[in-house]
Amino acid sequence: MGTSAAVRFPDVVWLEQLRRDDAPVVGGKAANLGELAANGLRVPPGFVITAPAYRRFLAACGAERELALLASATVSESEEVGGLIAGRLQAAAFSGDLEAAIAAAWTELARRCGGDLVVAVRSSATAEDLETASFAGQHGTYYYVSRSALPAMIRSCWASLWSREAISYRATHGVEHASVLMAVIVQQMIPAEISGVAFTMNPVTGATDEIVVESSWGMGAGIVDGRVTPDRYVVERAGFQLKQRRVAEKRFRVSTTLRRDAVNRVVQVPLSQQRAETLGDEQVVRIARLAARAERHFGAPQDVEWALSGGELYVLQSRPVTATGNRPYCRNEAGGKYVLFKPLFENFTEPLTPLTANLFMQGAIAASFRLIGGRVYQDLARARHVVPLRLTDAQLAQLLYLSGAGLPDRLRLSLARLPGSLLFIAALTLLFANLFARTAHLPADFMDVFRRRAEAVDGDDRLGVVESWRSLLLGGSWLQMVTAPVGHHVMAVNSSSMRYMAWMAVLKLALQRWAPDLPADALGVLTAGGEGVLSVEAGRGVRDLADSARKLPAVRAVLVEGVPEEALERLQALPSAAPFLSQLEGFLAKYGHRALREFELRSPRWEEEPSQVLAMVRNYLLVESAPAGHERKLADRRAEVVREINERLERRPLERLLGLRRRLVGRLAERVRYYARMRENSRFYWVMGAHVTRRKILRLESRLIASGKLRVRDDIFFLEWPEIEQLERGELGWLDVQQRIAERRREFVRLSKLSPPRTIGIESGEPVPATAIGEGGVVLNGQTASPGRCEGVARVILDPAHNAQLLPGEVLVAPYTDPAWTPLFLTAGAAVVEVGSFLSHAGTVAREYGLPCVVDVANCCSLIRSGDRLEVDGDTGVVRVLR
What we know:
By secondary structure, this protein is α+β, with helices and mostly antiparallel strands. The chain is built from 34 helices and 26 strands.
């Protein structure tokens, strides 16, 4: 169309008339959309209320005095003045000419689109989409706007130019407030089934030979403001080959019926879709090609916003990529040395939310660990004081990460550190002697008293969030921990259970010395045993529910043929389902505090979303194998291993006569099983305490939303506790925390896309590369968690609640596992897990069911695709991809 200072621009113009030179009068966003439409890309039709129309409206509403004040105002003063300008814009009425022009444009747009018309109303400021600043998310956008609501939404877009966030952003980037004008785009609303963004260079690494596509369900606003962690696909620019995918948990989407500023605009995604992949390979490549086409047109790397609706791919925006480069995972300015804390990471791979981290990092935990990038790291310097071995930093890091890779064959003591270590061990022993003695021989149900404590704390309104957390999980002082009744304190029990490592080490040495030629699975089989292990019993409880459902054809049909989210409501309307529902209620009464990713307080519990349990029941119903067969197989194998051990030990006449070594090995194995069970069960009760804390948080959140201090559920987890206290007292309000929440959500999404480094500040601290090209295919290295060998077809499963059906003999490939995954081990021929250890849930359950399991296989969920043929060697910890 071309611009000229001497030519008066009309108040309303059509998108297809615009070109990039028109940015000074229609804003960068509208100008770019005009260019894309002219280049043949599918852009939703629409018109633009121009920046000169805004300038005339601003003058007519009497804002000259406020605009004059901005020239010498501070940032805080500018925010106050901006509020006054926004108020004037919202209150004023359109002139007759402007109102007539908008009405005529609406009529024409409705004719072009056909049928009933609703639109998206989008800001397009003249300072947007610059090469140095994008202003993304700073200005108003409103969805599903009707004809009657259009004038108010246009004024809201104009007013958003004067929001606190926009004023602060301009001040930070050196843009004069008075120099920025606002145009408004009115486009046909596209009811996006899937939407997202595409970057024509990798914004994380800065690589220009990659195109990154991110996608989620519904509209893309959830990605922009950080409420959704999107699926992420990396495409090689040369040939447009998909090289990497990372499927995220998409718990929320933006509602398609509410304005952007509505209180409940975020709704939950059905459980069956949360871990479902949003795009197929062909769709990813199609989007990548579209983004590359936009880049060629504009001549620079682009950030392209897109949407899929009815099979059609629409371009919603294209702007220059403004923030790229290989941004480090964290800043280590102090030069510390840290190792990822694997016992937590193997059960929860995503970053902690700010509130969970704030509560978690207290007391002794805060003294010994550090929160980096939302993950918990051990301090190497503190660990070295108590580990009296001569190891390099890299070797000690491997030891702390529960990995034997890179360790010397023979460990040597450090005489210089030995006295200090012995003194520390002696002090620790004295401190815990009473506790260790009291916990050495306890019945499996000794912690049932903790459930009654948790119920009492839950019902005590005098105890707030922090008080409940400290009472149930921190246990007060060390003295209280070691002297109070054993079942009262989870931390005390967990500390006591760590003795399994010492017993395991002694048992391993004894077998190596006295029976060195035992089969590879001997140690694992000897120390396996699920009696009294509550996570295993929970799996049996799900199995019992499935057995009951099998006997009720109508119940089985509802669970197998429907989706889990709808199953409960349908069962409640089914008279014959009453026995099953009663059994489900009993199961939830005992295990309802558990959840997927249960260490995170943000995660909904089974009690809140029974559909998670019904999804597991469905998995069992889809399996024909009987669990009892696996358990008998393990029992038979254990008896066989015991016979082999006894045969080797009794080769000496004295041993045949006295049986001292045989009894010692039996005692060592029993102690390992006892303390391993105690360790696993302490987690069960720790999660119970966290569940009570979550319930207190949700009640507090409801009160804050009712009072208008918070707007959207789930936001509370992105605040720290002192900020929440300030909200309660009225010292902070919604406007004070809104931007903090948005920034933390975006950072949370960034961190969720990254695999955290195992070490920070330690040279060569990473393990041997996990991937290599070997004979017959790709070789992935990991650690053995359950011995044995298996060859089978891979099934990559990211969430056991989503279509998690394995055919008998398939290899389960997972990012990590917790109790919700147990039914899948029933039919798996083997398991390959991205994060884990010998005593992780994956290893424990795999040994119970007698199937090979390799853990700590870095990026296995990305490198292995469903349908690949795998050879899993649980004896050596190697996985071969036989493509």
